[in-house]
Every structure is written in structure tokens, then in C-alpha cells.
Specification:
globular; Rossmann fold; alpha/beta; binds NADP nicotinamide-adenine-dinucleotide phosphate; single chain; 11 helices; 289 residues; seven-stranded parallel beta sheet; 16% strand
Length: 289
């Protein structure tokens, strides 16, 4: 009998990829608020009764909790909604997991860090600069009270997603349409390739390791330099990239500026390798045709 895996947010960017990667080896139940081919059941995960009903019916061995309000600006402006989407469902899932002694894999974010120093690892204190990060810290607290949990902190997840809006896809669409794109020069991070994150989650499902882990790529990029590298690889016109400072974007939620991270612990504990950008872009090139 294969393990049963419940994926919340299975219709989203990471969820779609994870659902496809896990499907051949596990019994999957994907849940999301909107139906697509990766969603088995449509529910609002903040609906306690509906979520409990699915958990009791499916009896997952592992819950991968991806569903979230991931729009950082919206979280800042609508804090109650952010709590409802990001904190309440985590509480419901954690209570069920504690009662049934099952594992949760919770996808947090590098936005738990304040971005003042860079070079963050799991020993650094969290101190989010905006409300989205606060909801992720709250989720981490809830999940880390369990016996059997894994927390991953990815950042700037990128990959091929024809229906989606991740940074790579925004760049792709603008370059394809010959449109200029303003990109911050002053936000630094180690972008996470979506298929790396999904491979890591798959390893975590099979592992007995417990704890929280930075789950970011090997290479540190300023966001503008990241875009330049992608344009160079695909032969896109990098003159369309307009370097700007974060302040000029007039965003409401503060962003962590230097959020470079160190993935050493995840690499060691899960015997995992994150591939480099060039390798990942070659995979994306194959997916584009
Ligand atoms: N993308 C990144 O760069 C990034 C970086 C760090 C961490 N993360 C975290 O990684 C996880 C996955 O991210 P992602 O990029 O795949 O996000 P995503 O594309 O927005 O996927 C999340 C999915 O959850 C759904 N959802 C939201 N609220 C829900 C609710 N109340 N009930 C049921 N479903 C709900 C969303 O539906 P709607 O779209 O209809 O709301 C969406 O389909 C999230 O927890 C995110 O915070 C993402």
C-alpha cells in the first residue's frame, strides 16, 4: 500500500508540480479553492468542518501544506484575511496531525527573516518585515509544536507555468511581448527552482528527519542580475530590463533586502542536491516546447 499524501493548495504553482511528481508513487488527494486538473476536491481550507471532513475521510499519512495567501501586498492590507488563509488552516491541520500522529510538511518562506544581514540559516532569529512573514512565523510555531514535522523555507520560487505569475513567467511574457520590465537591483536572495523544491519534499516524505530547513538554491542573485542571467541564457533582449530600487515601486509591505540563505543543513540531512541555475534553465527550455 502506498502512502497517502494530502496536498493543500494543489492547484497552485508548487502544488501542480508536486502533484505530478508524487502521483506515480503515492495515493494523492489534492485540495484547493479553485478546480483544475491537480485538484481532487474543492474546498476553502479555512472551513474547519469541510477540512476535517476531508482529513477524516482520506486519512493521510503525510500532509503537505502549501495553501496560502501568498500575495504579500494583500496580506499587508487585509490582515484578517491573511490570518484566515495562512494561520487558521495550519491550526486545523496541526490539530488533526497531533491527534492522529501524522506528519506535516509546512512550506514557509525566507520572508521570516528581516533581510538586514543576509547569509541566513536555521540558527538565525526570525523577525519578519511584513505581515505575510508574520503569518509564516505563526504557522511555523504551530507546526513545530508537533512531534513529526518538517518546515521548508524557500524563496522566489521559479519555473515553467503557462498559467502562472512566478518571476520567471513574468519575465518570459514581458520579453516575448517586447515590453520593458522594471526589476529591483537591491533585493538579494537564492531563488528556488520549483522542481528542486518538489524533489526535496518527496525526499522529506520518505525521511524520518524532523525540523526546519532553508530550502533555497545554491546561487545568490540580486533580482536584476537574476533576470539578466535568464535573458542571456535564452537570448532575450536584456535592454528591456529596467533596473530600479525597491523604494521606487511604492509597495506597501516592506521587503527583506538581503535575504541570501545557506541551504547546507537541508543538503546534508536529506542527502539532497540543489541544481544550479543553468541546469534548471535547460529543464525549463525543454518544458517550453
Ligand atoms: N512562490 C514563491 O515564490 C514562494 C516563496 C516562498 C514561499 N512560498 C510559499 O509556498 C507555498 C506555495 O506557493 P505557490 O507559489 O504555489 O502559491 P500559489 O500559486 O498561490 O498556490 C497556493 C494555492 O493555495 C490556494 N489557496 C489559497 N487560499 C486557500 C484557501 N483558503 N483554501 C484553499 N486553497 C487556498 C490558492 O488559490 P488562489 O490562487 O485561488 O488563491 C493557490 O491555488 C505557499 O505557502 C507560499 O506562501 C512561495
Amino acid at each position: 500500500m502506498s502512502k497517502k499524501i494530502l496536498i493543500t493548495g494543489s492547484g497552485g504553482f508548487v502544488g501542480k508540480n508536486l502533484y505530478s511528481i508524487l502521483k506515480p508513487d503515492f495515493e494523492i488527494c489534492g485540495i484547493d479553492i479553485v478546480k483544475n486538473e491537480f485538484v481532487d476536491k474543492v474546498i476553502d481550507v479555512s472551513d474547519r468542518a469541510a477540512l476535517k471532513n476531508i482529513l477524516d475521510g482520506f486519512q493521510p499519512d503525510v500532509i503537505v501544506h502549501l495553501a496560502a495567501l501568498s500575495n504579500v501586498e494583500k496580506c499587508e492590507m487585509e490582515k484578517e484575511l491573511a490570518d484566515k488563509c495562512n494561520v487558521l488552516p495550519t491550526k486545523i491541520l496541526a490539530a488533526w496531525s497531533a491527534h492522529h500522529d501524522k506528519k506535516i510538511i509546512y512550506i514557509s518562506s525566507d520572508y521570516v527573516y528581516d533581510g538586514k544581514k543576509g547569509g541566513y540559516d536555521e540558527n538565525d532569529a526570525v523577525n519578519p518585515a511584513q505581515y505575510y512573514g508574520e503569518t509564516k512565523v505563526e504557522g511555523e510555531k504551530i507546526v513545530s509544536a508537533l512531534k513529526n514535522y518538517i518546515i521548508f523555507r524557500p524563496t522566489v520560487i521559479y519555473g515553467w507555468d503557462p498559467d502562472g505569475m512566478n518571476f520567471f513567467m513574468q519575465l518570459y511574457r514581458n520579453m516575448k511581448d517586447g515590453k520593458a520590465m522594471r526589476i529591483m537591483t537591491d533585493q538579494i536572495s537564492n531563488p528556488t527552482f520549483v522542481l528542486d523544491l518538489c524533489r526535496l519534499i518527496k525526499k522529506a516524505i520518505a525521511s524520518d528527519v524532523v525540523g526546519k530547513f532553508v530550502a533555497t538554491g545554491n546561487e545568490i542573485f540580486g533580482r536584476y542580475d537574476f533576470a539578466v542571467k535568464i535573458c542571456d541564457y535564452f537570448g532575450w533582449d536584456k535592454n528591456l530590463l529596467v533596473p530600479v530600487g525597491t523604494k521606487s515601486l511604492g509597495q506597501i509591505a516592506k521587503r527583506p533586502m538581503n535575504c541570501s540563505t545557506i541551504n547546507k543543513l537541508a543538503v546534508e540531512k536529506f542527502d539532497f542536491n540543489f541544481n544550479n541555475l543553468e541546469h534548471n534553465l535547460a529543464i525549463i527550455r525543454g518544458q517550453m516546447v
